[in-house]
Amino acid sequence: MTSSAVTSLSRIQFAFCFICMWSFIPLAVAEVEERWQPLNPKPRLLVLTDIEADPDDAQTLIRLLLYANQIDIKGLIATTSVHQKTRIAPDTIHTLIDAYGEVQPNLNSHQPGYPDAKTLHSIVKSGVSVYGMQGVGENHDSEGSDWLIREIEKADSRPLWISVWGGTNTLAQALYKLKKTKSENVLKQLINRLRVYTISDQDDSAAWIRQTFPNLFYIVSPGGYGAATWTGINHVVQGIDNTRISNAWIAEHIQQGHGPLGAKYPDVAYGMEGDTPSWLNLINNGLHAPEHPNWGGWGGRYERYIPKLSETDPTGFTGGVPVVPETRPIWTNAVDRYVPVSSNQYGRTVSPGSFEFNGYRETLWRWRDEFQNDFAARMDWRMKRYDEANHAPEVKLLHDHSITVKSGESFHLDARGSKDPDGDALQFYWFNYAEAGTMKDQTVKIHSAENMARVHVVAPDVEKPQSIHFILKLTDRGEPALTSYARVVVRVEPH
What we know:
alpha/beta; Inosine-uridine Nucleoside N-ribohydrolase, Chain A; Immunoglobulin-like; 2 domains; six-stranded parallel sheet; four-stranded mixed sheet; 13 helices; globular
């Protein structure tokens, strides 16, 4: 169904250490990070889906399968939700995997690491066929909740991301059993391994989870769906080109002429792919930093706080799930100021445009054209040879991903080592992502054309250490045009 701050040096170092540890603690919020380097172990992901409640779950699963070489999918669990209270549909998951199996060899010819269909079939599981808290407690274990516990307890250094597209009661049952059977210390260690993103609250067990496990890493826009960040994936925005979420674009680039899996991509009923934002930030595109939801990415940007009940649209559409006050901080809606890039006919190829947008949906739709093009390219991979298709450019910085400078000091951001695997021409665009750093209300100017590989910046004057995030968008001129990113975190120290 459909729908601050950064870390300190010591905690960043600890995060690095978890690569070789069995258990770890989620990164906490601090003022300024001193060092950051992107770590790219393939993230673990387990999905809970009320597939068939709305066609968008099938849409989202089809997209996810195209990124199965970058994401280690550990489970696909069919569940209920407020929109589908008494049935589950694991057979639909199997049907889509069958279609994926027909194109998997060709996908591997473009990028290695796509799992075979047999492996994916083996991790399809079923939750209980009842609604919400009716399925939580004694004698409510299921194949799905048992599988969740198995993955949570597995000796794996990577966090386990749980992407919830429907109801949460299968997760709630797993947590209920762990709380009942484990010591307090062991339970704490197990909870620390989890990263949960739910598409709003689609049953009454979600609030119970957050109240019962206050330290659980949890991303959600609670309350009415109209107040949710995830709606930015399909929201029609006045003042921009919305072509890439149109039915005509979907038909041409996804559904028709793109093999058996494209043919399975259903028409939009209520909204395109409302569940996809729950895992988009796991894709290794150079922008992603999943342990830092406040840094932003394809799946949106989120900050950790206790939202006011009035901010959650409590009278909006929820399908009937009660909206209750939050009792602990959660990762939830954040606001971006976004100025879309303007393409110029003469002179500087691209530059900041004249229209400004502000809001929580903006944290997601600002990247929409880019991730839709990436999706379309991967759909092409299903049927085309490598030399017939387009592939994302490769960013190469000529300096570290973290830079330390003094107030007023000049420095350069340099990506002149970048290249394109298909030999396409490249377009560079640098900008300061102010909201991702600590100087949220101050945009740091780039003192040269933003569309150069190497740009000049002067550090602002600061009275205490501050962090500034610069993002490079590197876009090729292939068809469809594909974008890769680099994030450079600059620490500015006072004199």
